[in-house]
Design goal:
Number of strands: 11
Shape: globular
Number of helices: 7
Structural class: alpha+beta
Length: about 240
């Protein structure tokens, strides 16, 4: 049975951005990199549950990616410290009143308790950026185990709109990302059920059905970490009833 965790609506800017042609990136101030919305507490609780019960499905780190994961935690903590809805010290007071202990021995578990976003780290290996680490609680019809260790082109093989031309443009985009200058895009799809953890394999793609009761939109943001040079691909997922 699908778990129903819904936002009240898909934000207008995401709906507009989703209609733009790929890769359709636009700048966003770092103060607005991470989003807290009306599903914050429920999405966090679900992601922590997934980390506790099926971590291997939702979290992977390749050997050698540990410095980038550590820098990701430090970067997000610094970002949250500048926000009025979080209080960051030895612990973090969250917008829903929870106090989270910062565990540097398990950065992804700490991050799962702090932000709604799924977080994927892409590091440059040779000519392409490779997925080297991620926490992916809310996949939209893909599987982390199949994608970890793959370059951008390999990750997007089953996606029809992601042709060679788009792949080259996206790789140039990744190469040009500068620290402190975040960019974002969005997508929008209809789903028959509201399950956020929508894991599918490449050999078992999501079926498209006529009866779709929900809209699912991902706000996808790219940020480069200044020390390791890794690119953070963050995904904020909104699920709402179809208007």
């Amino acid at each position: 049975m699908a778990r129903e965790i819904l936002q009240s609506r898909i934000p207008d800017d995401q709906r507009e951005a989703a209609a733009a042609r790929l890769p359709a990136m636009r700048p966003v101030d770092m103060a607005n990199w991470l989003v807290v919305d009306d599903a914050y507490a429920e999405q966090i609780a679900y992601k922590v549950h997934l980390m506790e019960t099926s971590r291997d499905h939702v979290c992977r780190t390749l050997e050698g990616a540990e410095p980038a994961v550590e820098e990701l935690l430090d970067t997000i903590l610094a970002n949250l410290a500048d926000r009025p809805d979080f209080t960051v010290a030895d612990t973090v007071m969250c917008p829903d009143g929870r106090v989270v202990q910062i565990d540097r021995s398990d950065p992804f578990m700490t991050l799962a308790q702090l932000v709604q976003e799924d977080l994927c780290l892409m590091e440059k290996h040779g000519d392409e950026h490779v997925l080297t680490a991620a926490i992916l609680g809310f996949p939209a019809a893909w599987t982390l185990a199949e994608k970890i260790g793959r370059p951008l082109t390999g990750i997007h093989i089953p996606v029809p709109p992601y042709d060679d031309n788009v792949a080259k443009r996206v790789q140039r985009l990744f190469d040009g990302i500068q620290p402190g200058r975040a960019i974002w895009r969005a997508n929008l799809h209809t789903y028959a059920d509201p399950e956020l953890h929508h894991r599918r394999t490449e050999n078992d793609p999501r079926p498209y059905v006529d009866e779709a009761n929900f809209e699912r939109s991902e706000r996808q943001t790219l940020v480069r970490l200044p020390k390791t040079g890794a690119v953070v691909f963050s995904i904020h997922t909104c699920m709402a009833p179809k208007p």
